[in-house]
Amino acid sequence: MKNTKDDCTQDGYPCSSLNQSRRAFFKTTGAAILAAPAILTSRKSLAQVIVPPLPPSPPTTPWQQELPVVGEPLQQTDLFAGPLPPPQGDAYTDVGEVGRAKHQRWDEFFAAPVLQPDEADLYELKVEAITDHVFHPDYPPQLVWNYVGRTESGAPHRNPTIFARYGRPVIIRLHNELPEDHGSNSTALTGFGSPEISMHLHNLHVGSESDGFPGDFFSRTKKGPTLDAPGIYKDHFYPNIYAGLEEFGGIGDSREALGTLWYHDHTLDFTAPNAIRGIAAFYLLFDELDSGDEHDANPNALRLPSHPYDYPLVFKDLRFNANGIHIYDQFDPEGTLGDKITVNGMIEPVLRVARRKYRLRLLDSGPSRFYQFHLVNAANRVQRFTYIANDGNLLPRPLLNQTRIRLAVAERADIVVDFSQYALGTELYLVNRLEQDNTRGPDGAQAPGKRLLKFIVDYEPAEEDVSQVPSFLRPIRRPTEAEIAAARVRNWVFARKNGMWSINDRFMDANTARATITKGSAEIWNLNNPSGGWSHPIHIHLEEGIILNKFVDGIEVPIPVHERGRKDVFVLGPNTRMRVFIRFRDYVGKYVMHCHNTVHEDHDMMVRFDIEE
Known about the structure:
There is one protein chain. By secondary structure, the chain is mainly beta.
């Protein structure tokens, strides 16, 4: 196994400079920075912009908009009928595809170098600037960026949910249609974002060329440092296999199944502003067990509540100026904490539900706010629900009679709420009781909390509810004592440095791997936040891990029940350390680990690691 010198070291290495893309950005926008006062302090060797506290967002009248009763999945696209050639393993750079690496394992799934009809589910998405989005009727229509597909009738389908199945490959053709002169006529706070894109399908087990590596960003005229050429589109190949393909054969180890995934922008240095512009959506992955069909006659199927009663909800914290326009400070390493929470792009919306069970998939998409959700009635009395999945992974057993959900940025939770116990006309609310006044992390919980979403039990279902929540969900593969003893140990320290955010005392360099790992090996990663001043939700690409131990202030503490399954986000609170067991399987190439408080990520709390044969 080849390893870099600093794998298990946190001190003794010089700090790298700001990466070149951020240097270029600050150079081209220097006027905006120079217009603000700057200071040098003994703690921060970089010039820091002094930003006055932002006033609160203008007030809004709640419950003025309704979410669609049914969220339709994205329709497939016939990529054989368009002007571009059908997908292939190698990049089509001569017709405008970006200079990516060849798709890994293409020849194992497809009969020819060029895709043939009916070998995969095909989708086409365009990242577009939408100028008339309404967050709330009290605010004006305004600019957002969205992934845009098409409905069956050909109408635009913004930030669509994609349904996929294990064993059936998916190819997404992604076009960048953002204006390359974005921000030229805007202020520093309203012109945030960079019109290059790199799409990451969060948590999928996939080749690095389709993982959305931050340095793989592209536009028509620009390319990231890890691409060979810019382009107008990029094909992403998602085989939809379980981890453990080489160990178990077939399509891998079904105990490693994922369920609630999401895709979002991951452009180097601009993940927070680009994603907060609105480039994020769900990707739901089903298999024989979690089949997405509550009528499934297969005796192995769980028959959990299914579409249209399987409803994804994405939460995002935003800040608005006095005119009701969305603002964000991408220069400030502290970022901008939102005081208005959108649910599927709307502030304080209403969702009308049937009197039956629902599977609600909750996602904290950031950029910085943590949540503690409770379901309450009109009198603020807490209601109970069943917790079935964390980070999109079904738990071994459901957690019954739960009353709260704690989510950090990028964490997900699937819950089942039985609305049949309520009379028609009943109003319920999803509230956030977690206090937070800056981007560094949450404070304590406080009742009654802030109401974010109203449910109205509005109608009887068209048919009998046959869904269920069985006593056993999905088995889990835990590491053996022998595997733990044999695993290589690496230490990763997440800290503040020079006013930025660092890992092992260094900043992100997209061109340099800080660890090199042999494919097929297993390791224990010590994730350590030695500070008492902030929290870091740490995300590791390609593979999930199992938390072995958790320490707070140097004392081992119990691992919460909902975190005892597989995880892809590891929440390091103040003075917290975790030992995480990870297997690295099936793919090679470049991947990253980073803080998913995307403000920290953009200001360099990210590290590249490579997997080699």
